[in-house]
């Protein structure tokens, strides 16, 4: 279970780093205002989170791990 959790966290951070649709700036092109703090497990800043896309990332990751 710990491996699945770690894989899901990594997938979410990858989505952010690739400037995907699940996590994006709240306004305009404000990618510089959002900060990924991997060591803390946080992504902070003014952002718009598409919950459906985020859930899809988690489900896809779990399916790959199983």
Characterize this entry briefly.
By secondary structure, this protein is α+β, with helices and mostly antiparallel strands.
Characterization of this structure:
It is a single chain. This protein is α+β, with helices and mostly antiparallel strands and 66 residues long. The protein contains 2 helices and 4 strands, in the order αββββα. It has helices spanning 2-17, 51-65, and strands spanning 23-25, 35-37, 42-44, 47-49. Strands 1-4 form a two-stranded antiparallel sheet. A two-stranded antiparallel sheet has the order 2-3.
Secondary-structure class: alpha+beta
Question: CA-to-CA gap between the ends?
Answer: 10 Å
**Low-pLDDT windows of residues:** none
* Total strands: 4
Reading the helices and strands in chain order gives HEEEEH
Specify Rg, calculated over alpha carbons: 12 Å
Keywords:
66 residues, alpha+beta, two-stranded antiparallel ribbon, 2 helices, 47% helix
Give a topology summary.
Elements: H1 2-17, E1 23-25, E2 35-37, E3 42-44, E4 47-49, H2 51-65
Antiparallel strand pairs: 1-4, 2-3
Helix pairs in contact: 1-2
């Amino acid at each position: 279970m710990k491996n699945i959790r770690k894989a899901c966290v990594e997938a979410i951070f990858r989505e952010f780093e690739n400037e995907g649709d699940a996590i994006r700036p709240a306004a305009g092109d404000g990618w510089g205002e959002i900060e990924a703090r991997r060591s803390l497990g946080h992504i902070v800043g003014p952002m718009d989170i598409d919950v459906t896309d985020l859930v899809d990332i988690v489900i896809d990751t779990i399916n790959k791990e199983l």
